[in-house]
Write a structure and sequence with these properties.
This protein has about 575 residues and is α/β, with parallel strands linked by helices. It contains 23 helices and twelve strands. A hairpin with a 2-residue loop joins strand 2 and strand 3. Helix 1 crosses helix 2, helix 8 crosses helix 9 and helix 22 runs antiparallel to helix 23. It starts with a helix and ends in an 8-residue tail after the last helix.
């Protein structure tokens, strides 16, 4: 049975103060310095409510705490101390150690739970534009969304991953016009993305120079919407060739999706949206376009639903997608993993979605998971200007650099190509997920492929070290025969506490939609194991000590591998 130490402490404080247990639980902290206990309760949080000084509150709570029932004092809480306005709780080491290691033994998928059972989560991520290069700017959406997908699923949620492809819109009107003008000059069958990009850059320049060309592009998209055979045939060709190219990148990253329904999928679903919005009385004409004014909701920019030439917009298609996903998936949350450049767009459509007649739970569950841009040292990337780094090139380069390092450090290693792939791609993914998603990331080769410090390869190397220890030991010890008291030292206990918190770390990721919480956790666990490895002799003459430490090493490896896999990183057995 799982002992929830935090909940037990919250229950006791709630009994002593008569304050809601859920509120108390949110206040309980994990001190950075273990000298301040395993859990800490800041009493100043209750000062206003109880109208007393934090020190007095701490003293009164401690006097009222009752840990005698079920011998909790002996088996769970070792002691409670007051430090300033804090109550510090020290967990019984043996109780914690037994719980953690027994669960490692019992659960193949440690930290997995069913807390999300019965809840549907839709995650819209990656979503590259058809006929444009899959560049490093798309990496963030792909790996952040992929990590969230894996973690939600691991916690029991029914998770639906949607690749909402950019396969519609004015850009296709431009491509069609460019192909009409210069198609014979380019071999799009042989090198589709690069050739289509050249056409796109060229037609954009032509649009800047000649307003008639731009109008022709807009007309082409209107024809595409209206089902013009020539335009539809070209669109289908561009889409098919692009998806084949994109799949090469998805295969390298290990990305998978449950739905590939892009913008075009919603073309026949938009009339209903327009009809509902017209009935709402909120759809008005402005300068020839049809808009929803959102001033009343504090959004000064109106949401354009139909352009002056009668064609629909990105917003219209997103609204149709919300309606479709609510009906099809009955979601609790619908997450949109895109850059913060689209903050206004999602504010607008989430507000307009309230006019669609959906149940409030659906509009409440809409969430924009924004992230910072990937910038070049020279500034922002742009397909129109042609200054981009293709993601496939980046991943190939990462693998090649990883291979060179392996050749230097371990030339006799078997399966070098396979290991280099895991290390190189792991480095790219981890680098992207290691910091808060809202931060901009300046892309530099030396930084992104730095194999020292707090990196993906460091976590992989730590995992490989655990495997090496197990090989030297010859076997994984029997959990039933372990002497847990041999793991009472500081270094062992730091690891035990971290492993105990693994499931909570995953829950925190889903609460904040922030995979970096897991990435930082894996760094902390790898560092703790390095300290344990350096300070404690694992293979020793004391059989009980060796078995306990080997089992703890096995536990670290298991959690590192599970955590890395959830981020989309594969672990090599050797490096």
């Amino acid at each position: 049975m799982t002992i929830d130490f935090k909940k037990i402490i919250a229950e006791k404080i709630s009994d002593a103060t008569k304050i809601n247990i859920e509120e108390i639980e949110t206040f309980i902290e994990t001190p950075k310095d273990t000298k301040n206990g395993d859990y800490s309760f800041p009493c100043f949080r209750l000062a206003k409510e109880l109208k007393k000084a934090p020190q007095i509150i701490a003293t009164e709570i401690k006097e009222k705490l009752d840990f005698e029932d079920n011998k909790i004092q002996e088996t769970i809480i070792k002691k409670v101390e007051i430090a300033g306005g804090y109550l510090n709780f020290y967990i019984n080491k043996d109780s914690l150690t037994k719980q953690v290691l027994n669960q490692i033994a019992e659960k193949e998928e440690y930290g997995k739970s069913e807390i999300g059972k019965g809840s549907n989560i839709v995650i819209d991520y990656s979503a590259p534009n058809i006929a444009k290069p899959f560049h490093i700017g798309h990496l963030r959406s792909t790996v952040i969304g992929g990590a969230l997908y894996n973690i939600y699923k691991y916690l029991g949620y029914n998770t639906i991953g949607v690749n909402h492809l950019g396969d519609y819109g004015t850009q296709f009107g431009k491509l069609i016009e460019g192909y009409k003008l210069w198609g014979e000059e380019y071999d799009i069958e042989k090198d589709p993305i690069n050739e289509l990009t050249k056409i796109y850059v060229r037609i954009n320049n032509a649009c800047k120079e000649d307003e008639k060309v731009l109008n022709n592009c807009r007309d082409n998209f209107k024809k595409l919407e209206d089902g013009d055979p020539y335009c539809v045939k070209l669109w289908e060709k561009f889409r098919e060739l692009s998806l084949k190219e994109f799949q090469k990148v998805y295969d390298l990253l290990g990305s998978k999706f449950d739905s590939w329904n892009g913008e075009a999928f919603y073309a026949d679903k938009m009339p209903e949206i327009l009809q509902i919005l017209e009935k709402s009385g909120r759809l008005i004409e402005s300068q020839g376009a049809q808009i929803i004014d959102l001033e009343d909701s504090g959004i000064s920019t109106p949401c354009i639903i139909k352009k002056t030439n009668g064609s629909t917009t990105y917003a219209t298609r997103d609204l149709a997608a919300i309606m479709y996903r609510a009906r099809t998936y009955d979601f609790e949350k619908a997450l949109y993993v895109t850059s913060y450049e689209q903050v206004l767009h999602f504010k607008q459509i989430f507000e307009v979605a309230k006019l669609l007649g959906l149940e409030a739970k659906y509009t409440k569950g809409l969430k924009h998971v924004s992230f910072g841009m990937v910038l070049l040292p020279t500034g922002k990337m742009s397909t129109r200007q042609g200054n981009i780094i293709k993601l496939e090139d980046l991943l190939d380069e990462a693998i090649e650099r990883a291979k060179q390092i392996i050749e230097e450090k371990n030339p006799s290693l078997e399966n070098k190509n396979e290991i280099a792939k895991k290390v190189g791609i792991g480095a790219i993914i981890f680098n992207d997920l290691a910091n808060s998603r809202v931060k901009d990331e300046i892309f530099e080769w030396d930084q992104i492929l730095n194999f020292q410090g707090e990196t993906g390869p460091y976590i992989q190397y730590t995992y490989v070290r655990t495997k090496s220890v197990l090989e030297k030991a010859g076997k994984i010890p029997d959990i039933k025969k372990l002497n847990m008291e041999k793991l009472s030292d500081e270094y062992s206990q730091n690891i035990i506490k971290l492993i105990y918190s693994f499931e909570d770390v995953l829950i925190q990721v889903t609460k904040k939609e922030e995979p970096s919480i897991l990435a930082r956790y894996l760094i902390d666990l790898a560092k703790s194991f390095s300290s344990f490895y350096n300070e404690n002799k694992i293979i020793s003459q004391d059989k009980q000590e060796q078995d306990a430490r080997v089992y703890l090493t096995y536990s670290v490896g298991k959690v590192l591998k599970i955590g890395a896999n959830l981020l989309g990183i594969e672990m090599p057995d050797r490096m």
